[in-house]
Amino acid sequence: MKQNLKCIISAAVIVIIIAAASLVLYYKVMKREENRCWNTLKDSAKSVTSELQMKFQDNITTLGLAANAMIQEDKIAPEKIPSLHLDVFEENTLFSRIDVIYPDNTLLLENGTLEPLRGDITFDDIASRGEHISTRMNDSETGNESVYYFLPVEKGGETQAILTGVIDLTILPDVFQISIYNGHAALCIIDSNDGNYVMDTWHSTLGNAYAEPDRAPLSGYQDINLKEEIRNQNTGTVAFQSETNGQDTYMYYTPIGLFDWEVLVISQKNIVFSNLLYLRKLMIFVGIIEFFLLFIYFAWNLYTANQLSRSQKETSEQLKISNTLIQCVTELSSDKDINISIQNLLTIINQYFDSDRTYVFELNPEKDILTNTYEYVRGGVSVQIDNLQQVPISVLPKWMESFYRFEPYYISDLEQERGYDSYDMLKEQDVNRLIAVPLGKKGDPIGFVGVDNPRQFYDDATLLSSIQFFLTNSLATKKQQEQLQYMSYRDMLTFLYNRNKYIEVLDSYKGKTLEKVGAAYIDLNGLKQINDNQGHEAGDTFIRSAAHVLSSIFPENTYRIGGDEFVIMVHDIDASEFHDKMTKLQQNMQQQRISISIGFLWKDSCENLEEMLKEADHRMYKAKKAYYQTADRRTHNH
How many angstroms separate the CA atoms of 618 and 621, rounded? Predict the structure, then answer.
């Protein structure tokens, strides 16, 4: 009786410890995943902010080029402006048109019409503020909500005219189509000076943030005065309930760093925390299974305690199975990398069976092949994982019959495999005895876990059968994580690396000295004309064609960082090889009738990759400028 009571108490303690450890693990995993979801929202906002900064800075640079052309070519007077072809500078920018304001308060429109300046602004007022962007106002020509970027044109120390880039706010949502959360997020830009929305994919019309009613925060979140946060150009997060659909909504706000504008990225709970919600369901499900297994374990210990007097050896063996099963479940439920957990699991199984080799094969049903993906071998036993890749299922016909019935497969003596291709394969590996259990579900196996030459429990597949569900689930989770990682680092149009991967690579190289480095900045010429004349589908085809050429020469070193902008970063490459590849790249682009502007350079040693990329970018802009000048001359001559 005392012995039975000891067994019951021991089992109860183990159950309590495992249950407590599982609860702690659940809390830690959920907390880490929640933080990761928050970081994803923040990183997405930072990525959008960087894109906005780059796009607007490019437009300002283009407007500056137009101003320099006016001064250097002495084409400031209204009658000389048409020969400057401001529409060329307007191409590939956000500006719907470029106007010129003169000291007599007259406005020269892009079509050559000279008319009085609108009454609410004057030349002197604008000139006194220098280069700046306006607040939101109705455009006098189109009636659309617009903002104006004013750039004084100075000559001889005096402002002779003011170049005005008109940005039609109705087109901004089309220009900045954010892809975060697969498009299930809203992007807003607010002018913190007056609260006016400059861009808004959240509401149906452009309004004013300061005129909107305050929103009560969700329970557990700090009550933040969002209007003051925007006015003070702060960074932070807020959570509230949507008045439109009643869904919990999350917002990350941060300044752009230009024009006193603030960016807001808004998405709903089921989008921001989709992985967390899925993981929570999965953990609850695993918890139910674990509770069920612990219940079985506890009940089993009661049974073995009652049978202790009749068979101490049997009780010891069953207890070992239970303890090993707990070890396996705990290992697969741990917070470790899945690959490490599976490898540790094979170690536990190998020790349990006292076997030579324990392994996992995964099935590719489309190709009817099996691949050895994980293996553990004891000391002195040969490693076979490299020799067991792309194994046709026709080699193991009897095995697969059992697996499709979802039954274990036993080999008690190698002679039972004589006459099959598996005989020679097993004999070469010195396998005489084997246990294998399918993974997946009945009729649809995804692979199997096997044990070679078990020295104990060789006729009992209970342990393997008990863990197959958890191992199957771990393999499925691994594939999902690999798919998510692939999607987060790949551009879905071209399948090149995207800006996220580009930024991560740059961050990883900070503070490091790279040897034999090549870098290139590439911009496609004529994309806007293709989009305008043939449609965006043709433009996407144009981009994909260029990406195909890039990936054929630099398959793992090319990044699409913007609509038609690409970057190449490669190190440990000789100068001659790099320049040969760049020559081939340009030749292949020409053969495909793809016009590009490119800037590239090679360094024997690079301590700051970002500065090197900036130099490549600068060279690309020179090439782009030369391209437009050539195109302008052809148009003029024509």
Answer: 5
Strands (E), 399-443: 409-411, 434-441
Amino acid identity, residue 444? D
H/E run at residue 51: helix 2-72
Confidence of residue 634 (pLDDT cuts 50, 70, 90): low
Residue type, 202: W
Contact between residue 212 and residue 244 where contact means Cβ atoms under 8 Å apart: no
Phi, psi of 405 (to 5 degrees): -85, 0
How far apart are alpha carbons 445 and 368 in whole angstroms? 12
Report whether 33 contacts 276 (CB < 8 A).
yes
Answer for the pair 186, 252: CB distance below 8 angstroms, yes or no: no
Contacts of 519 (CB under 8 A, 6+ apart): 567, 568, 569, 570, 600, 601, 602, 609, 612, 613, 615, 616
Closest CA to 237 of 218, 228, 224: 224
For residue range 122-135, list pLDDT tens digits in order: 999 999 999 999 99
- Contacts of residues 19-26 at CB distance under 8 Å and 24 or more positions apart, as own/partner, are 19/291, 19/294, 21/330, 22/287, 22/290, 22/333, 25/333, 25/334, 25/335, 26/283, 26/287
Indicate the residue type of 594.
Answer: I
Between 485 and 152, residue with greater pLDDT: 152
Q: Which residue in the block uniquely carries the two structure tokens 């052309």? A: 69
Name the residue among 358, 416, 352 with its Cα closest to residue 385.
358
Residue whose entry in the numeric block shows the structure tokens 């360094």: 603
Least confident of 89-93, 327-331, 561-565: 327-331
Measured in residues, the chain has a length of: 638
Please state, in angstroms and rounded to a whole number, the distance separating the CA atoms of residues 402 and 399: 5
| Tokens 């219940």 sit on residue | 295
**Alpha-carbon gap, residue 192 to 308, rounded angstroms:** 77
pLDDT value for 42: 85
Three-state secondary structure string covering 477-542: HHHHHHHHHHHHHECCCCCCECHHHHHHHHHHHCCCCEEEEEEEEEEECCHHHHHHHHCHHHHHHH
List C-alpha distances in Å: 55 to 441, 514, 527, 532, 567. 51, 29, 16, 20, 16
Beta-ladder partners of 411: 434
Locus of tokens 């969700």? 218
375 strand-pairing partners: 359
Tokens linked to 474: 């771990």
Encode 439-490 in three state secondary structure.
EEECCEEEEEEEEECCCCCCCCCHHHHHHHHHHHHHHHHHHHHHHHHHHHHE
Q: Is 410 helix (H, G, I), strand (E, B) or coil?
A: strand
- What does the pLDDT average to over 114-121? 87
- State the pTM of this model: 0.45
**Rg of the chain over all Cα atoms, to the nearest angstrom:** 33
pLDDT(492) > 90: no
92-115 average pLDDT score: 87
Burial class (CB in 10 A: 0-12, 13-18, 19+), 112: exposed
Q: What percentage of the chain reaches a pLDDT higher than 70?
A: 92
d(C-alpha 152, C-alpha 286), whole Å: 66
| pLDDT score of 242 more than 70 | yes
